[in-house]
């Protein structure tokens, strides 16, 4: 019997480790949730009690953390929702290439060259202007469910 269970686990979807289950009733505002296979930050939660034999339901309003789209979902509060593993890492900006990719310095001294400039116009302008002025910039990179995007910027002084 235990061999059969092990075989089942080996066939699990590669995306399984990108999220973890959490009871819908315990997810709060400013937490994270997966709606329509997109990692989102919860901006509003309302719980409604339904009929005599129904479940209490949680209504989530959330913003996609990568593209900013507003998504909504209604889940019975006793059911589990997927919650993405969201990580934020700071990297020092080394270079911006012609094709819109950035070169970043990791903590261990290697370079990371697979990230594009952000699509957010205000942040994009801050990064380009700061880099053109020769400032030392640290970008904050958010990663979840196999996606990464620059979502913040710190100026740590001039060269």
UniProtKB/TrEMBL annotation:
Stretches the record annotates as Disordered: 1-21
InterPro entries from the UniProt entry: IF5A-like (IPR001884), IF5A-like_N (IPR048670), IF5A_C (IPR020189), NA-bd_OB-fold (IPR012340), Rib_uL2_dom2 (IPR014722), Trans_elong_IF5A_hypusine_site (IPR019769), Translation_prot_SH3-like_sf (IPR008991)
Every Translation initiation factor 5A C-terminal domain range: 85-154
One of the Pfam families matching this protein, by short name: IF5A-like_N
Listed Gene3D superfamilies: 2.30.30.30, Nucleic acid-binding proteins
Sample GO molecular function, one term: translation elongation factor activity
Keywords assigned by UniProt, alphabetized: Hypusine, Initiation factor, Protein biosynthesis
One BP annotation, GO: positive regulation of translational elongation
Biased composition (Basic and acidic residues): 1-12
PTM (free text): eIF-5A seems to be the only eukaryotic protein to have a hypusine residue which is a post-translational modification of a lysine by the addition of a butylamino group.
Function: Translation factor that promotes translation elongation and termination, particularly upon ribosome stalling at specific amino acid sequence contexts. Binds between the exit (E) and peptidyl (P) site of the ribosome and promotes rescue of stalled ribosome: specifically required for efficient translation of polyproline-containing peptides as well as other motifs that stall the ribosome. Acts as ribosome quality control (RQC) cofactor by joining the RQC complex to facilitate peptidyl transfer during CAT tailing step.
Family to which the UniProt record says this protein belongs: Belongs to the eIF-5A family.
Protein name: Eukaryotic translation initiation factor 5A
Source organism per UniProt: Linum tenue
